[in-house]
Design brief:
Chain lengths: 254, 254
DNA sequence: GTAATATGTTTGTCTAAACGAACATTATAG
DNA sequence: CTATAATGTTCGTTTAGACAAACATATTAC
């Protein structure tokens, strides 16, 4: 065991995360970009890259571009997942402004444990999928009730109203929604996974992420010609080819 | 402006928090205790105390006991509030184990903003008060639905069931609960604030915390003879004399 | 292809935070 | 009231992380 696997510092996690984000946008991460992204001096980037390289997390040669190793990718992915779990929760459940949510997620993403992330994701997904009615459900309960001083009558009225919303909305939904292929969705649209057909590779990649029937999947970006498409699932990002996406059946949400 | 009010480091926040906790248990905080509490070398404590003293946050004389200044108390209180908001949310909403929740809260408490803390508190209080039925409400929805793959029929059944629970439970509650004095509650019991009567000092102390009718208040500890009693409200701690507590009318919860 | 510019690296410096060992003070046992 | 133990402090070191200035290498413009 040459490069020991001791816990990374917050700072190093941030570098990995930044590199992953940059690689995702352009195929290559340059020190300049990392430096700008993290608002840090160029020389600090060099230092960090050397440290990360020693630990076997990035491939680094002086004066050349940076890529992540297998292990580095795993860590960076996990950091990003934590970040997005927090961000999504803040935005979708607590109704916090996007920029502020991002900032807080940045500061909190390092100390959060796997099990909390998982529950946060389940919970936020639930809020997004289950209630319908424009996500007003939990919010309505949480905030309106609070404002109404939590008096029990108001609370009940609130719950009743919400139940109505859920029912009428789900009737509507049952009429108009039907299973569709993931490849049909446009950027920003979401669906619940109904079935993953197709060959082994993608199926495994997806099921490895703990995805079950009903998990929420969101289309982030679609390249011209619809190939490839970037999706987000359980806080992970994934790039799928069109044929692969066609093998995934979803129920469109929203 | 002698001692400038620049942001404290995480480490310094931790020292302040530890001091506040220690003072709360025994009237005095000794370096040894801080050192044990934070698992840090004794000499590091001295260093931290000197730094905090320079910033006017603790009263520090070599070889003597430590107390917090006004400003130090404010900061420590806010750190602790953040900690408890996170912890409560993890435990009560996400159903995370207490020890793990505490640990994570410790690591995340420094980066969380005021507005997020506030919403987290509202949200957790809502979950605790509104649903009744042993807090199974949100959990039931969040986790059962998730496990049931979020299929919409199951989800609805779930919501219906929960609504039933809320209704029957609140009927029961309306029969058996009635307004009572805060001073009647035993440690561990909670109530929603109905009215704060009495003189100016405590009323102000409480209302300054943003407490409104309906806010949740929990009795933490009661001294022999019921005087004083420690309570927790909106993540803040408060020590009330028996006469003061008698002026606060609450609706018992649970 | 060379000059000018942009980008990356090295070096030396700084700060915060921690540690251990040696020393100072206070508390306690007898 | 001393001797000993417990606690607190100082000092010297270490480490991680950041910065700026000077230097090195790429890139681009002409």
């Amino acid at each position: 065991m040459t490069a020991d696997a001791y816990a990374l510092s917050d700072s190093m996690e941030n570098y990995l995360e930044a590199i992953l984000l940059l690689i995702r946008e352009s195929p290559v991460a340059r020190a300049k970009d990392i430096s700008r992204h993290l608002k840090v001096n160029r020389s600090s980037v060099t230092g960090a890259l050397q440290a990360l390289s020693e630990r076997g997390l990035v491939n680094y040669e002086p004066y050349s571009f940076v890529t992540l190793t297998q292990q580095g990718t795993e860590i960076a992915t996990s950091v990003l997942q934590r970040h997005e779990a927090l961000r999504d929760f803040f935005v979708n459940v607590l109704a916090i402004d996007g920029a502020e949510a991002d900032e807080a997620a940045c500061r909190m993403e390092h100390g959060i444990s796997k099990s909390i992330v998982d529950r946060l994701i389940s919970f936020a997904a639930f809020v997004e999928v289950c209630p319908r009615a424009g996500n007003k459900w939990i919010r309505g309960l949480g905030y309106q009730c609070q404002e109404a001083a939590l008096s029990s009558e108001k609370c009940e009225r609130c719950v009743s109203q919400c139940l109505q919303d859920v029912k009428s909305n789900s009737k509507k939904r049952n009429q108009e929604t039907m299973s569709t292929k993931l490849s049909e969705l446009k950027p920003g649209e979401k669906g619940q996974i109904e079935k993953v057909a197709g060959a082994g590779a993608i199926k495994r990649r997806i099921t490895d992420m703990g995805v079950i029937k009903g998990s929420l999947i969101e289309v982030v970006r679609v390249a011209p010609m619809g190939d490839p498409m970037d999706v987000r699932i359980k806080g992970y990002h994934l790039s799928l080819r069109k044929i692969e996406a066609a093998d995934i059946t979803v129920n469109k949400v929203e």
